[in-house]
Amino acid sequence: MTAPPEGTPIWADAMFSELEGAKSFYGDVLGWTFGEASSEYGNYTQAFADGKAAAAVVPPMPGQEGHSAWCLYLASSDAEATVGRIRDNGGEVLLEPMRVGDFGTMALAREPSGAVFGVWQGGTHEGFEASGVPGAYCWAEVFTREPEKSDAFFTAVFPYRTQRMEESDVDFVVFRNQEGGEPVLGRMRMTDDFPPEVPSYINVYFVVDDCDEAVRRATDRGGVLRFGPMNSPFGRFAALSDPQGAAFTVLDPAKREGDMPKLSDVS
């Protein structure tokens, strides 16, 4: 497998105090199945969509119990070098590059406006395998109250070029890989609709084959509907929180409505 360009979203995982509850919830809402927990790596458990690796869940390490959140990992060919750029551009390194057996090397960081993300230099674990099927990762967005800080940071750390959404009442930017120009990540300015105690975060999107049914299953299982369901040019989507507080969005890409937004180059 060819290594993805630097900065490409490559993996997602989340810590859950109630691991079995998380597996039951996401198994029902996204159709995931789960592999065996790896005791050697803190009971890290992979989730599968259509038999292919889609994400992972893990119990918190001692002292890290609390609010659950999804963490998006961005691809790096050299985690040490990426961490150096993170520091040089005002980011905070939460976990220094650490080898995870022969699977790869990981690091955790916080960008200047507060959103936490991971860095992954792949070894035998190359990242997402599932694509385009229900339960597969499909998109992510940085939600921040300080977009200028986030934009400057991400374009300095990763080889992104930036495009801004035109003719819109929202401040939304798309980061594209310089190599190939594929859109890899969005950035949304948080408005006053977000409670002030909600920090900057990265929201991950997962594919579903019926947005409304996924919302029904999620809320029946104790999840909270935050926004939607709503039709868009990208599909019908809804923002949710799971029963342990982790935010995520479900998207049915088959139900598209409206014209694609126009984007203009920023950098």
The counted number of beta strands is 17
- Identify the overall geometry: globular
Structural class: alpha+beta
N/C terminus separation: 30 Å
Largest sheet data: 9 strands, mixed
Hey, roughly how much beta strand do the residues contain? Answer: 35-45%
Instruction: Work out the oligomeric state of the chains in this entry.
Output: single chain
Mean pLDDT: 93
Task: Give the strand line-up of the largest sheet.
Answer: 14-15-16-13-9-12-11-10-17
pLDDT below 50 for ≥5 consecutive residues: which ranges? Answer: none
Helices and strands, in N-to-C order? EHEEEEHEEEEHEEEEHEEEE
Count of alpha/pi helices: 4
Rg measurement, Å: 18 Å
Helix content: 10-25%
Could you characterize what this model shows?
The protein is of the alpha+beta class and 267 residues long. Helices cover 16% and strands 40% of the residues. The chain has a 9-stranded mixed β-sheet, with helices on one face. The protein has an 8-stranded mixed β-sheet with strand order 2-3-4-1-5-8-7-6, with helices on one face. A hairpin with a 5-residue loop joins strand 11 and strand 12 (183-189). Helix 1 (19-30) packs antiparallel against helix 4 (211-220). It is globular. The mean pLDDT is 93.
